[in-house]
Specification:
single chain; 394 residues; alpha/beta; 7-stranded mixed β-sheet; 12 helices; elongated; binds flavin mononucleotide
Length: 394
């Protein structure tokens, strides 16, 4: 991709990576991605973001299509994850007079990433950078999706540079949303990106939307196309996805696996007890429900109970898979417990319990386990255990 003029004096100088299929270990990138960067020219010339280290040469060529690299005065880093900051060190080597603008957290991250002291000017909310004919304004927007995140606002062109916010992994060679051929594919990726990157930070997303200047007409993110025609719809979607659903009752999710019905009987006793306590309860056998349905329910529940029999000194993988999908950022104010039937050694409930504690759920001191087939007393004890977990959020 070469340099693309987006507005008078605003250039896209980022690169495409159409063959990428896995991003940050955890995300699928069906349509590849782009590492976006922008160059604003005028009396002073400013770059916004760099690109992944592997793509420095193409980035440099794109900048040189607009002006000699040595004429760049400033670099604004809205967020410093290495897909954006990976070329900072090499850029500085070629542009030693460059001054970097970022938040205090950004400076720390960038210096820890590059292992060098950098010429950073730390900015706060409302700080401005006068470029002569264009004044940029900085809008810190923490936890979108690191502590360092900020937006940069160009009021003259009503253009907002948001880094990952409102971005997605999608290769659009023209960089414009209005030119996307497969709109459904883009929308799918836009939703998937929100879910993977911003899903854990919903309150911060709402704060970020409120900080966006209402008259923004162009949003330039760090992945995928710039948004103009789709901007209002994209903001609405982010707001809808981030607004908590109003619940009449607290919710509980009892998720389990069971080969011979022993753990299933415990799950049923727990569910009945929590219903009697006034919870809206959902129960799922992990072998009969999809992992994504179990993961969604587990992440939404106020109270989570996870049950597994011990099979070969461990819990079955299908149960661990649900725990691997738990959103560890948002467990504050939520409670969880572990239970299961076993035959002789009974490791599974303890292992699950430890994992739930590590994720910082409020949890009782011990898990609950029963030898083989639960007796009536065992089922009553299970009900008591479920109530004790629920008590942790009262
Ligand atoms: C293949 C297999 C391996 C097992 N391994 C263990 C084990 O390592 N430790 C243990 O305490 N129980 C073990 N058990 C016994 C089960 O945990 C026990 O039968 C339990 O009651 C099953 O509960 P469920 O009916 O909910 O599946 C094993 C059972 C099976 C079928």
């Amino acid at each position: 991709m070469s340099a693309i003029q987006l507005r008078e004096g605003i250039w896209s100088v980022g690169v495409l990576n159409p063959s990428l299929r896995v991003f940050d270990i955890v995300m699928e990138a069906k349509y590849g991605t782009s590492y976006n960067a922008y160059l604003l020219t005028g009396e002073k010339n400013v770059l916004i973001e760099t690109v992944h280290a592997d793509y420095f040469e193409e980035y440099e060529q794109n900048i040189r299509q607009v002006l000699p690299l040595e004429q760049v005065d400033y670099l604004i880093m809205n967020h410093n994850e290495p897909d954006h900051s990976g070329s900072v060190a090499r850029l500085l080597d070629q542009c030693p007079g460059l001054e970097i603008f970022c938040t205090a957290a950004g400076k720390k991250h960038l210096e820890d990433i590059t292992n060098r002291t950098l010429p950073c000017r730390v900015v706060k909310a409302g700080d401005k950078l006068d470029l002569g004919g264009r004044t940029l304004e900085f809008i810190p927007a923490p936890l979108l999706h690191w502590a360092d995140s900020m937006f940069t606002w160009d009021p003259a062109d009503k253009t907002l540079f948001t880094c990952d916010f409102l971005g997605c992994h999608f290769c659009e060679p023209t960089m414009l949303d209005e030119n996307i051929h497969d709109q459904a594919a883009y929308e799918g990726e836009f939703a998937y990106y929100y879910q993977g990157i911003f899903g854990p930070f919903k309150p911060f997303v709402l704060a970020g939307l409120d900080k966006m200047p209402a008259d923004a007409r162009l949003v330039c993110p760090s992945h995928g196309p710039c948004l103009s025609g789709t901007l209002e719809r994209a903001k609405e979607l982010y707001r809808t996805w981030s607004t908590p659903k109003s619940k009449e009752k607290k919710s509980a999710f009892v998720v389990y696996a069971s080969a011979y019905g022993c753990t299933a009987a415990l799950a049923a006793a727990a569910a009945k007890a929590l219903e009697a306590e006034g919870f809206s309860v959902t129960t799922a056998d992990v072998t009969k429900q999809s992992l994504s349905a179990c993961a969604d329910a587990a992440n939404e529940a106020d109270v989570l109970l996870v049950g597994a029999p011990t099979i070969n000194k461990d819990a079955p993988k299908a149960v661990w898979d649900v725990l691997a999908c738990l959103d560890a950022v948002n467990t504050k104010g939520r409670a969880a417990g572990a239970f299961g039937a076993y035959g002789w050694s009974g490791e599974a409930p303890g292992m699950l319990h430890t994992r739930l504690q590590q994720l910082r759920f409020a949890a009782p001191e011990t898990p609950f386990k029963v030898l083989f087939t639960p007796t009536t007393e065992d089922l009553e004890a299970m009900a008591g255990y479920a109530r004790s977990v629920a008590d942790l959020i009262k």
